[in-house]
Design goal:
Structural class: alpha+beta
Number of strands: 5
Order of helices and strands: HEEEEEHH
Largest sheet: 5 strands, antiparallel
Bound molecules: zinc ion
Number of helices: 3
């Protein structure tokens, strides 16, 4: 399929709640293919549909570059069953180029989701995979990793966030 432009912070699509999709439709298959192409091209480990401008409950994940043997996942209409053990850890986000933040997030999680084959899959994840899964899941609800920062920390970040917003207004992509 195709590499799509990655939306920068400031784009309102990043704040929209994604809609459930038919996991086996042609448009979902094309969306998943574009997400993988765009994520690998950008060197990321996860990418959500809103980050390429589509308000859908779909994301892709492949942490194998950091965690050998980690699965390549297309996650559609996910529902979290439970989460445990919040821990601080460093995160980046393709919609915030070169910004890395410490985020407290559960590092054990269990979730169910649809696959592109139309089956329902259950995933129990820990460590980086759980963190990446929950980061992407946040995107489907319009939540961004900066939202997990304290008010004081967000104030310190505001000049950098302003630069992302200006780049978005100029029509740039990440
Ligand atoms: Zn992100």
């Amino acid at each position: 399929m195709a590499r799509r432009g990655i939306r920068l912070y400031g784009d309102p699509v990043l704040r929209t709640r994604g809609l459930p999709v038919d996991p086996t439709s042609g448009s979902t298959r094309d969306l998943v293919a574009d997400l993988f192409d765009t994520m690998y091209d950008a060197g990321g480990v996860g990418l959500a549909a809103c980050q390429i401008g589509v308000s859908a409950r779909v994301f892709v994940l492949d942490c194998s570059a950091l965690l050998p043997g980690s699965p390549k996942l297309a996650v559609i209409n996910p529902e979290v069953q439970w989460v445990k053990r919040p821990e601080p850890g460093e995160e980046g986000c393709l919609s915030f180029p070169d910004l890395y933040l410490h985020v407290s997030r559960p590092v054990e999680a269990c979730a169910e989701f649809d696959t592109p084959e139309g089956t329902r899959q259950t995933l129990k994840a820990s460590g980086l995979l759980a963190r990446a899964f929950l980061h992407e899941l946040d995107h489907l609800n319009g939540v961004l990793f900066v939202d997990h920062q304290s008010a004081a920390r967000r104030l310190l970040l505001s000049p950098r966030l302003g630069r992302f917003r200006r780049r978005f207004r100029r029509g740039e992509f990440a």
